[in-house]
Amino acid sequence: MAFFEKTLTSTDVEKRLSIPTRCFAHFKGRIEGTHAVGLKVKDDKGQLMTFCCTTRKKGYKKPVFTKGWREYVRRKKLRAGDKIVFQPSGDEDGGVVYKIEAKRRITILGPQVWCNVSDA
Length: 120
What we know:
Strands 1, 2, 3, 4, 5, 6, 7 and 8 form an 8-stranded mixed sheet that branches. The relative contact order is 0.22. The protein is globular and about 50 Å long. It has one domain: DNA-binding pseudobarrel domain (At1g16640 B3 domain, Beta Barrel). It has 3 helices and 8 strands. By secondary structure, it is an alpha+beta fold. InterPro entries: B3_DNA-bd (IPR003340), DNA-bd_pseudobarrel_sf (IPR015300), LEC2-like (IPR044800). Residues 4-106 form the TF-B3 domain.
């Protein structure tokens, strides 16, 4: 089951990925006392990456992915309108590992379908 799915905006692709606010509760325990945490993430090819999940120091605490996220965007050549699926994948070496999939909508003989985006 997906932790969250999101259709990417231009800001998500060009700067940082804004994570749905409802997901903050999941990261809150890991971010307590700081405003950033590294998350281990595996893509559909099994490549392990680290995304930095940060929140603002004051005010509204909406989480975003910063470091590591843009590298993933460049590698997959993602664009606004593409979708990501992010979900917990289990534990590895004592830490939670997340799985990320990138999808793009394509038209095949009329209907539009979501297909996986492979590395460019």
